[in-house]
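hiii so um. not sure if this is the right channel but i have a protein structure encoded as tokens and i wanna go backwards to a sequence. like what aa goes where. can anyone help
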């Protein structure tokens, strides 16, 4: 499904996938290079990182990749059109482990989960990964509470791994995959 926003942003009606928190962009850049028939949109809260990904994408000629700097909860809730996203990717989000910082977690409250469900196309997928099983469980529970259906965890097509995963997931990567029916 396409929308006017995506047509304006990318200039084509190709399906859109969003990565929330791409960091330095390892995964997002690899996906965009491997799958030119899909548009990729990154939401990164750190502006210099977002600009860096955009610069690398431009240097590599990746016309199917855009990145915006901002709070994903707000962007998904208010700017992403209904039923316009094929897949969401959330890999190794900041866990904010201290009790006093938990309100900063990406899935604190239901704002992001509601927005993801609203913006996913029917059959759309959400791919989650972290080195912390409790974080994956919490994200999965938030999405299930909004009606997404769990599937067996799957590694997305073209998964390149990330530098963060190589460095910190020594004890394994925990994944969850969910679908909007």
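sure thing!! here u go:
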């Amino acid at each position: 499904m396409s929308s006017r926003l995506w047509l304006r942003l990318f200039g084509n009606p190709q399906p859109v996938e969003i990565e929330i928190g791409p960091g330095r962009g390892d995964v997002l850049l690899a996906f965009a290079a491997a799958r030119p028939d899909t548009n990729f949109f990154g939401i990164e809260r750190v502006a210099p990182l977002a600009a860096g990904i955009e610069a690398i994408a431009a240097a590599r000629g990746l016309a199917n990749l855009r990145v915006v700097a901002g709070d994903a909860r707000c962007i998904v809730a208010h700017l992403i059109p209904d039923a316009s996203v094929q897949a969401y990717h959330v890999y190794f989000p900041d866990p904010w482990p201290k009790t006093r910082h938990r309100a900063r977690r990406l899935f604190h409250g239901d704002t992001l989960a509601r927005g993801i469900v609203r913006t996913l196309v029917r059959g759309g997928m959400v791919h989650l990964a972290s080195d912390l099983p409790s974080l994956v469980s919490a994200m999965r529970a938030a999405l299930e509470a909004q009606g997404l259906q769990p599937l067996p965890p799957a590694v997305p097509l073209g998964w390149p791994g990330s530098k963060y995963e190589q460095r910190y997931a020594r004890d394994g990567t925990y994944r969850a995959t969910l679908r909007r029916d």
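oh and The beta strands are 16-20, 39-44, 65-69, 85-91, 120-130, 149-151, 174-179.
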